[in-house]
Amino acid sequence: MIKSLAACEETVIHEDEVLAASRTLINRQTAERLAQIFSALSDPTRLRIISALSDHELCVCDLSVVLGMSQSAVSHQLRLLRNLNLVKYRKEGRIVYYALDDEHIRELFGLGLEHTAHQERMEA
Amino acid sequence: MIKSLAACEETVIHEDEVLAASRTLINRQTAERLAQIFSALSDPTRLRIISALSDHELCVCDLSVVLGMSQSAVSHQLRLLRNLNLVKYRKEGRIVYYALDDEHIRELFGLGLEHTAHQERMEA
DNA sequence: ATAATATATGAACACTTGCTCATATATTCA
DNA sequence: TGAATATATGAGCAAGTGTTCATATATTAT
Fold it and tell me: Is the pLDDT of residue A6 over 60?
């Protein structure tokens, strides 16, 4: 424990802060989970899908038209979002309608948007 | 415009929804920006750095001890966070102290944590 | 000046990611 | 049943990512 703190040429520079930070640090598993959520939001295509679905549900074909992308590309991304439970779907015949399935994601998306708006103001 | 909507074997399935979604869809540049922000949060190491810095500033050496990672790896990630203005730093002699530099990121981090906590409850 | 040390960084490498293309599956319609 | 069509998915490939290793830079101490 204490021994593992030895580094930086055998001397921890700020032992108290290191101990404090170590106590409150999120664990590796939590970090992995968090990273997975943010990874889902770290791609422009998926963000545009989420944006497109923020008002209405849409079928895969509609989505590919809206995004101007191939059905295959959209479908692959939808699978990813589905696996992370960020979107839900319902089937009506051969048509599959996708919709957002997570208020947290809506919040994260909105908060991110605020941030970009903030950034743009800073640059102006 | 209207022509570009033709797809899915020449027939748009839900023209109204497609037009509505197209109007409110975030543009490609915004999507890129947003993706960049979330990308910064999409890696376990960077999330643990953010977590470690959430209370106190820490120097690079302290950080590498806290995270149990090489100084080089931490330094590379700090550069990335620095370039996105997510962390700020101050130099004191040869020691460089890093701290969070963005309330939005703190909020996003917190919101993400809530989500993982929610997920864990769902699984229990 | 020289040695020691905190941090930064380039190159390389394994691994991941997002797309395309081809094709499979499932449902509807004739 | 067989053709048409909405969606899903596997393989493959180009581009991106996170680490290590070696080394550069900058500051302090002798």
Answer: no
Chain B contact set for A47 (CB, 8 A): 26, 31, 34-35, 38
pLDDT in tens, A12-28: 678 889 999 999 999 99
Q: What is the mean pLDDT of each run of 10 residues along chain B (124 residues)?
A: 44 82 95 96 98 95 96 98 96 96 93 84 70
Number of domains into which chain A is organized: 1
- How far is the alpha carbon of A10 from chain B, nearest alpha carbon, in Å? 11
CA distance linking residue B110 with residue B88, whole number of Å = 19
From the list B12, B34, B54, which residue is nearest A116 (CB)?
B34
CATH (domain of A117): 1.10.10.10
Q: Which domain holds residue B26?
A: 15-123
Residue B38 · residue A36 · CB < 8 Å: no
> Which of B33, B60, B74, B75 to mutate against chain A (most A CBs within 10 Å)?
B33
